[in-house]
Amino acid sequence: MISFKLVGIFFLTIALHGAEIDFEVIRITGATTIQPILEKLAPLYTAQTSKKLQLEGGGSEAGMKKIIDRTSAIAMVVRNLTADEKNRFAYLTIGYDAVAIIYHKSRPIRNVTKKELIGIYDGTIGDWRAFGYPSSGLIVVSRKVDRGTLPIFEAYTGLKSPNHPNLPAGTKLIRSDAWEAEANINTLLWVAGLKESIGYVSYGEANRYEKMGYPIRISALDGVNPSEATIRSGIYPIRMELNFVWDKNNPKAEEFIRWLKTSALEETVRDLGFVVVKQ
Question: Across 82-194, where does the E strand assignment appear?
Fold first, then answer.
């Protein structure tokens, strides 16, 4: 018969082991655009420190919420931070990305103007015949309201998602029948599979998937193609920052960021198609 003493030792061992695992895990939440960078660096981090990264998507705003309520150590945020956020939190800008306009490779166009983009998303332009293509269909793909790419697109177009709460009367809206993607991969798959669709995604992600053979085309916007040169200089009109954000009083986060600066961070950012910010 097993003694109560042995049972107690058994459960105490499990409890202590569990506490050790919790201590060794760095939880990082937020933008799925940044997540592949850490996925590539995670094995190196574990090998060098015996600690693990727990990576979760959910979008930039979900990441910010979780560092505020202290359920994550670090947020991945794909947008420019506000002055209040920069004052309240510690942060590291690792690179720049851009909002790329994509459509199916079969579309015969190479450029979309800002006016045309607004027309597509507010419903003024109802089908591809406006671009000389003999098709009446047009599937418009936008993003959910908690995704960091959406406010950048909204700021550029002057349109708002109809799913924002308490919008003022007279707000110009994205068309109500637009599909709403949770992540870049949703938009990429929908546009690759539906010839009538158009959407906007991370340029780094679009560039990577185009090279993998997805039948998508990255459009010029007002005559400017997104590239490292045009994004770094700001000539391409929709640029966004890639940020890590954390509480200033979180030593676990600070330790990871110190490691990150000495890792293959810049090489990984570049390899995934983003524009590097020198650390």
Answer: 90-104, 111-112, 139-143, 179-181
